[in-house]
Every structure is written in structure tokens, then in C-alpha cells.
């Protein structure tokens, strides 16, 4: 009954009639006691319209059937390709861990698990059965630019080649009433999810250039909720970078807002904004470096992995209802294992070498090139995010 009530209020909100932001008194982005819409028939038909739009939209994209993750066949008489070396941030749980497992099990990859909690990462690797010779845990706290620099120095010292970098880690603070900050005093979600990864990728680009691996890739995990051309992306609060006055102000909340667009702090919006930055950064990398380096730059939406630690700060009722809501109502749910296989494809599948692409998967788990929203594919915004970000992380 509670779930049913949720579904109806869902549609009500998606139709754009309320402006609720996600706080304690809301569930799935809508007020728990919202009873303004009681015409069930009209709600259901609106719901159908929304889903039809999604189907039409998906049908426009090109589907590619996934192929097994194999590296290029070695020419006769030559040695087989060496193991690839992939760095995955936030590999201690959820998508990152599942990807590490999928790649390690393929026997073709050595996974560097770049994690803020060393012990947690070691335990996670062990309990998911990743064999010792296939992974190394290295400390990385993306909420500290010093830690990012230290990680890069440690990695370089390790002497390992860098073939693929996966920027996966993220924090989501939907119920936070006040902002929290990184070591450098930057709002935590944008600081961790975007700026930490921005610095990491920039500092590791040279290592990737030097790798002799045949298919080098830089992958940044995006999301549907940062894309306002989808139903999910229209659930309030919506992602919006505005004129980026808050980002330009350093996001420290002292002389400027802690939000990229200069507005009042909203943890859910900060996460979605950070995901737009992730997707814009991937495209800007592509424009600046693909031709020169041959590196494939890609982003993806792995599906709704409703059971991961990402929702750890959400209210218990949300955490209870979100997985069945995604499984049975939106049908956007994907298991951690399946999402790991998807990201592993973006890392190593020979058919996913196209650069500048935002990958998604259809209901048969076939990958396709998806379209980003207008804002998430805005060339001038991408350049602006890049230029402001390089100042904030001390590269310009
Ligand atoms: P999890 O919370 O399970 O994983 C997030 C990982 O990020 C954890 O390993 C966490 O470490 C790590 N992390 C957080 N902060 C830092 C930091 N400061 N330094 C280093 N690592 C950090 O969530 P998911 O697996 O769901 O999320 C993975 C990615 O997938 C994210 O980019 C998310 O935006 C994206 N995504 C997720 C979706 C979903 O439905 N779950 C949908 C679309 C995209 P620790 O274990 O120590 O907490
Ligand atoms: Mg969403 C096709 C519909 C769809 C999909 C694929 C998602 C994915 N969501 C969909 C629909 C809806 N969601 C609708 C109709 C609602 C209103 C009831 C809704 C609500 C909702 C909330 C409150 N959804 C959420 C939240 C979150 O807190 C999650 C979030 O935004 O995190 C940033 C979330 C998500 N929905 C998704 C996905 C993938 C998420 C996790 C977000 C992410 O990592 O980007």
C-alpha cells in the first residue's frame, strides 16, 4: 500500500506540479503527505506517456550487442598481450567492487583498488573472492587534493603501467541540511565526485599516454539523474549548473555559494550537478586529447543499482522501498553484479572503443550510445567547467 501510494505521488511530481526537494519529509523526491492528486486514471495515463517517451528516445539510439570481454588476438607466433592494469576509484563497494571482480576474474586485468579505507577494501576484495595476485589496494581519498597527489606519486613509484583509469567513487548526501567540506574546504559532493577525479585524471594522463596497451581508456561514471532529457533526471531537485558562479567562487561557502549555480545548499542537487560535471569532463577530455593520444574517453549510466552504499545517508524508508520501486515500477533496477559486468565492458570490450560516448544498456543488457541532455553536452559549459576546475585544483 505504501509503495502504491508512492507510485501515484511519483507521477504527480514528475508531471512538474510540485517543487519539493528531497528532505526528511519526502520520499522518492515527493512529500510523503502530498494528496493533491487523486485522479488515478489521469495519473496512470500520464505515467504511460512518460514511459512511452523513454521508449521512443531509447529506440533512437543505436544498440550494439555486447561481445565477450576479450583483448585483441595476438598475431600468430607472437606472445599474448600482457595483463592490463586498471585503476578503479571507490572499488571497496558497489559498482567499483563488482567491476574489480569482473575484471580480475577475466584473468586479463590487474586491478588497482584506489580506496579511502584500506582495510575495508582489503576485506571487500577477499570476501568477493578476488584472488590476491589480481589486485592491489592503494590509498586514495578523493576528498583531499593532497591525497590525490600522493596517490599519483605512489602509483608512479609502483612502476606499473596505467592502461585504464575508472573514475567511479562518489558520495551522495540527500538528507544533509548543511554542507560538509573536503580537506581544502570545498563542498563535499562536487569536491569528491568531480574535482578529486578531475585532478586525478589530469595528473595520470601522461601515464596513460606512455602505456603501450592497445586500447587505453579513461572512464568517468555518469548518471541518468544528471540528464534532464530523461524521466529520472526530471525528479526534483533537477541538475543545473547555471552560470557556474558558485563553482567559480570556489564552493567554500565563504564568499560564494556552496552550489555550482550559486543557489542554496541542496545535497541531492549537488550530487546531480557533480554528475553533469563528470559527463562534461569526459567530453572535454575527448575534444582535447583523443586525437593526440588515441585514448578512449567514455562515460556511462550503468543502470539503477538500488542496493549500493550510495544511498547510505538516505532515510531508512527510502532504502527499503527504493529497490522494489526500481525493480517493479521503473524497471530500471540492475544488480551490482550486472552493473559490474557493464562497466567491465566499457573497460575492456573491443567493441566499445569509440571515444566521447555516454554508454547505456537496454532491457536485454545490450550496450548502446545514449544521448546526453542539452546541458550535459553543452560544449561551452564543458570548457568552462574545465577551466574553472583546473584553477580550483591548482593546475592553472
Ligand atoms: P557505493 O557507495 O557503493 O560506492 C561508492 C564508492 O566510492 C565507495 O567505495 C566509497 O568508499 C567511495 N568513496 C566515497 N568517497 C570517497 C573518497 N573521498 N575517496 C575515495 N573513495 C570514496 O555507490 P555506487 O557503487 O552506487 O556508486 C559508484 C558510482 O556509480 C558512483 O559514481 C555513482 O554516482 C554511480 N552511479 C550509481 C548508481 C546507483 O544506482 N547506485 C546509478 C548511476 C550511477 P567507501 O567504501 O570507503 O565508502
Ligand atoms: Mg529515480 C525510468 C525511471 C527512473 C529511473 C531509471 C531512475 C533511476 N529513477 C526513475 C524514476 C523516478 N525516480 C521517479 C518517477 C521518481 C519519483 C518518485 C524517482 C525518485 C527518485 C529519488 C527520490 N529516484 C532517485 C531518488 C534518489 O534519491 C536517487 C538519486 O537521485 O540519487 C542521486 C534516485 C535514482 N533514480 C534512478 C537512479 C539511477 C537513481 C540513483 C541516482 C544516481 O546515482 O544518479
Throw out a few tags for this protein.
396 residues, binds NADPH dihydro-nicotinamide-adenine-dinucleotide phosphate, binds Protochlorophyllide, 11 helices, 42% helix, 12% strand, two-stranded antiparallel ribbon, alpha/beta, Rossmann fold, 9-stranded mixed beta sheet, globular
Describe this structure in words.
- Helix 8 packs across helix 11 (379-392).
- The protein is 42% helix and 12% strand.
- The chain is built from eleven helices and eleven strands.
- The protein has a nine-stranded mixed beta sheet with strand order 3-11-10-9-8-7-4-5-6, sandwiched between helices.
- By secondary structure, the chain is an alpha/beta fold.
- It is globular, with a radius of gyration of 21 Å.
- A hairpin with a 2-residue loop joins strand 1 (26-27) and strand 2 (30-31).
- It has a single domain (84-393), classed as NAD(P)-binding Rossmann-like Domain (Rossmann fold, 3-Layer(aba) Sandwich), CATH 3.40.50.
- The structure holds NADPH dihydro-nicotinamide-adenine-dinucleotide phosphate (NDP) and Protochlorophyllide.
- NADPH dihydro-nicotinamide-adenine-dinucleotide phosphate is lined by residues 89-90, 92-96, 115-117, 120, 140-143, 168-171, 192, 221, 223, 301-302, 304-306, 308-310.
Amino acid at each position: 500500500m505504501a509503495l502504491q501510494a508512492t507510485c501515484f505521488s511519483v507521477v504527480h511530481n514528475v508531471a512538474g506540479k510540485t517543487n519539493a526537494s528531497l528532505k526528511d519529509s519526502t520520499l522518492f523526491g515527493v512529500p510523503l503527505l502530498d494528496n493533491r492528486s487523486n485522479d488515478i486514471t489521469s495519473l496512470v495515463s500520464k505515467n504511460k506517456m512518460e514511459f512511452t517517451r523513454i521508449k521512443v528516445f531509447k529506440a533512437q539510439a543505436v544498440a550494439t550487442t555486447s561481445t565477450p570481454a576479450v583483448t585483441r588476438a595476438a598475431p600468430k607466433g607472437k606472445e599474448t598481450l600482457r595483463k592490463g592494469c586498471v585503476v578503479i576509484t571507490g572499488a571497496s563497494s558497489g559498482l567499483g567492487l563488482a567491476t574489480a571482480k569482473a575484471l580480475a576474474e577475466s584473468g586479463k586485468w590487474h586491478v588497482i583498488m584506489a580506496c579511502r579505507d584500506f582495510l575495508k577494501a582489503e576485506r571487500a576484495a577477499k570476501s568477493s573472492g578476488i584472488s590476491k595476485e589480481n589486485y592491489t589496494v592503494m590509498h586514495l581519498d578523493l576528498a583531499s587534493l593532497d591525497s590525490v597527489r600522493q596517490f599519483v606519486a605512489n602509483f608512479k613509484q609502483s612502476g606499473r603501467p596505467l592502461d585504464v583509469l575508472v573514475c567511479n567513487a562518489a558520495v551522495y548526501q540527500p538528507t544533509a541540511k548543511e554542507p560538509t567540506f573536503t580537506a581544502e574546504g570545498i563542498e563535499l559532493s562536487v569536491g569528491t565526485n568531480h574535482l578529486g577525479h578531475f585532478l586525478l585524471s589530469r595528473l595520470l594522463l601522461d601515464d596513460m599516454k606512455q602505456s603501450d596497451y592497445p586500447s587505453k581508456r579513461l572512464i568517468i561514471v555518469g548518471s541518468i539523474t544528471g540528464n534532464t532529457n530523461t524521466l529520472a533526471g526530471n525528479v526534483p531537485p533537477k541538475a543545473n549548473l547555471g552560470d557556474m558562479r558558485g563553482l567559480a567562487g570556489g564552493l567554500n561557502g565563504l564568499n560564494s555559494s556552496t552550489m555550482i549555480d550559486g543557489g542554496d545548499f541542496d545535497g541531492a542537487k549537488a550530487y546531480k550537478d557533480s554528475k553533469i560535471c563528470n559527463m562534461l569532463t569526459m567530453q572535454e577530455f575527448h575534444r582535447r586529447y583523443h586525437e593526440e593520444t588515441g585514448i578512449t574517453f567514455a562515460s556511462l549510466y550503468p543502470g539503477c543499482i538500488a542496493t549500493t552504499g550510495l544511498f547510505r545517508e538516505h532515510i531508512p524508508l527510502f532504502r527499503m522501498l527504493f529497490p522494489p520501486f526500481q525493480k517493479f515500477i521503473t524497471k530500471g533496477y540492475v544488480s551490482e553484479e550486472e552493473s559490474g559486468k557493464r562497466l567491465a565492458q566499457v573497460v575492456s570490450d573491443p567493441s566499445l572503443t569509440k571515444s566521447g560516448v555516454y554508454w547505456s544498456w537496454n532491457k536485454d543488457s545490450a550496450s548502446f550510445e545514449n544521448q546526453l541532455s542539452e546541458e550535459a553536452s553543452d560544449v561551452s559549459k564543458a570548457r568552462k567547467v574545465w577551466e574553472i576546475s583546473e584553477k580550483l585544483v591548482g593546475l592553472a
